[in-house]
Structures are given as C-alpha cells and as structure tokens.
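Table S7 (text form). Paired inputs.
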Amino acid sequence: FSVFVRSFFLADPEFPRRLRVSGYGRSLDFLQYLFKKYAQSELTKESDRNMAIRSLMDRMGRVFVTEHRYGIFASFRFRLLLWRPDPGNDNGRHVVDNQELPSWSWMTYSRIRFFDTTSPVLHVPTDAALTFSQNPCVLFIRVRRLKDCTTEHEGRECSILDAKEEPVGVVWFDTMTRSNISLQECVVVGREAGDSEMTYILLVEVFSKNSYKRVGVGKIKARCISERYWNGELS
C-alpha cells in the first residue's frame, strides 16, 4: 500500500473504527507503518513515548477485539514479532518505570523494520505457540534446536551456514555485540507458502531455567530445524 493510503487512516475522522472493515492485510500493513513511525517518536521522556503507544493500542485493540502487549496484538502477533532493528540504530534500550521491556517487543528500539506483510505469504503455526501468558512480559513458546548452524561473518546481518558450511539462511542480531553467539535454539514463527523451504524464526538463548530471551530474527531452511520441541517462556 502507498504512503498516502497509510496516512489516510490517521487522517480519517473514523479512525480507528475503519480498521474493522479494512481487512487483515491492509490493517497489518498500516500497523507496521504506524509502529515504525511511533518507534522513532522523540518525546522528552521515553516513558511518555511508550505511554502514547499503549494508549493508541488500547483504542485499536477495542476495534480489533484482541488483546495486546508491548506493541503486539494477539491477532497479528506472528507478523508483528518479525521485526529487526534498522541499520544505524543506536542499540539503546528504552526503559519504562525502570524496568526493561521484554526482549520480544519492538518497542525496545527507536528504529525498526518489519518483514513485508504480503510477500512472501506465510503459513503460521496453528498450535498454542507464541501465546500470551498471565505475566504481561512473557510469551509461551515452543523451542526447537538448530542443527549445527554457524554464522559466516560478524555484524548484525549474517549468513547462516549448515554443518557442511553451505548457506542455508540469514539472521539479523538485535545488537552488534551479540553477533558472535552460537546458533542453538529458535522459535518457529511461520513458513513461506509454496515450494520454498524457508522458515522464519526468532533466535533465542537461555536466560534461566525454562526461560529465554530473544537475541535475533531470521529465516532458514526447514531441514536445519529439529522437529522435536519443548515448551518454554520468552521474556
């Protein structure tokens, strides 16, 4: 959709009610556009920025009739979790009430980029993966192991190599300083429709027993991800 169409939603006196009839694809495209703009809001206090985002989501959540946490609507969660920091981001983490935002929230960064909403078409998990828990900072996840994968070079964007050192995907680390970690566990977010083997993942690492933190996002061939999984929590 064009910038004009996206801007129309904001200028519309019926906003956000018109989102109820705009359809999933157009609503998602608008949300990603809106969140990119709000992430860059330069208010005097960071807490004011995050409060403004929550207030806006409260209004839209009543229209979508869905729960939301830290910039993620439950009904759009698979696509909205597929974000990455923009190149040139200052790596600064925003703090609300002296508590860090959850690692899976795009609100952590001031410059973000979402994966395209329509291409490729994604098949998302239909099971209980990536659901909200009673703790507002926690997502229930299903953790899978990556099969002997490494990265080719340093930097936020890295090629993923399999055990034979052949390219099988790409990963974007959330911070430059984390680019030297080994690739071990991930959470499947969606798979490309059609004949493609590419699977979109959140890269995670153990934080404490049964608890994980997000450290990046990527896409990798499905054969490099174990079918076996175990339940965990992402905070």
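Next pair, protein 2 of 2.
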Amino acid sequence: PSAKMGCFTFIKVMMILFNLAIFLGGGTLLGVGIWVTVDGQSFLDIFGALSSSVLQVVNVSYFLIVIGAILLVLGFLGCCGAQKESKCLLMMFFSVVLIIFIAEIAAAVVALVYTGLAETLLTAVVTPLLKEKYGADKSFTQIWNVTMREVHCCGLNNYTDFTDSPWHKEQGTYPEPCLVAGLLPHLCGCLLQGCFNQILEEIKTNAGVVGGVAAGIAALEIAAMVVSMYLYCQLDQK
C-alpha cells in the first residue's frame, strides 16, 4: 500500500508540474498573440527574419491567441485537478485532451487525403482577406511581404490574389515579391508559385521532421490522458 501511495504521489506531482508548464506556456503564447494584435509592427521588427512561413499564411496573432487560450484552460484543469484531487476536473482534462487528439487526427487525414479541400478552404478565407487588407492594413501587409520574400512565392495561389486589393488600386501594380525583373511572372515566362504550394512542398520535403513532431505531440497527449485517468481511478480507491 505504501509503495502504491508513493507511486500515486509521484505521478500526481509530475502531473502538476507538467500542467503548470503547459499553463505558463499558454499564458506566454496568449500574451504574444495579444502583443502581435495590438502592435504587429514591433513584433515584425524584432522577429521578422525568424518568422515561420507556415504560420504567416494565416493571421498569426489570432492563431497564437486561440492556442494560448486552449493551453491555459488545459493547464489549469490538469494542474488543479491533480492538486485538489478533483475527479471532475481530471475528467474534464481528459475530455479536452481527447477532443484535441481526435481533432488533430481528423485534420491530419484531411491534410493527407484532401489536400485540394484544404486549399479550397484556405482560398475561401485568405484570398478575400488579401483583397480587403493588403495595402490597407500595415501589419498584415508587412507579414505577407516577409512571407513572400522568404518563401519566394506570390499570394496564396498566385499574383491574381492581389487584384482589386487596396495596394493594387492605389499603386496600379502588384507587390514587389510578385515581380520578376520588374514584370509579372506570366509576362516574363518565369514560374512563381503561390505560397500555399510552396509551403506544401516544404512540408513534403521535411515530412520526416513534421511526422516526428506530430508523433511526439500525439505521444504526450496519450500519456496525459493515461496519467489523468490513472489518477481518476486511484481516487475511487482512496
């Protein structure tokens, strides 16, 4: 019995520390997301060269806020559930992790099997934003300029994504990263792909790294569910 209680205490402490780290990480991401939303230009001035091309396709600030909020809730439930030995909080923690795990599997299946659908969904969301904000929203414009220069791409699909955008209407031309020798790709015979295709190629090229990261995240989620269910079951015996 004493060995069993010692194991329970050890796992409980590890659960608390693990979820405390998640909580702090979530708070950090949430803070950065709010910072980017409020003052995106300062963020780009500091981290522009190190920015992730994948995250820049969507609005990085909202992405960070959503992920940060989820991690905050997850860390709170896990930490408090273990500390207070609350079956309710532990079950909520287990349920949230399970939902996230299932959602990730579904997203992976869609990404692998329905790449065309993913492109259609992104086009439906991102293209209208480009036509509405590029050239009018300084932070949004700067993020896309950095993305296109680093990834060597133009728009989400191609340069026509910027047609009728505030920039196009005001300048009468397309963004500088879309021009090759001062000409549009179709005029100079050059091939400049959209950022979606370029990023997709980068992911395929680094499929091993992406798969390893995904497997590591999945393993952590499974471990978190196993540990939370272990503590939940042990509380019945206590």
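The CA atoms of residues 23 and 72 lie 5 Å apart.
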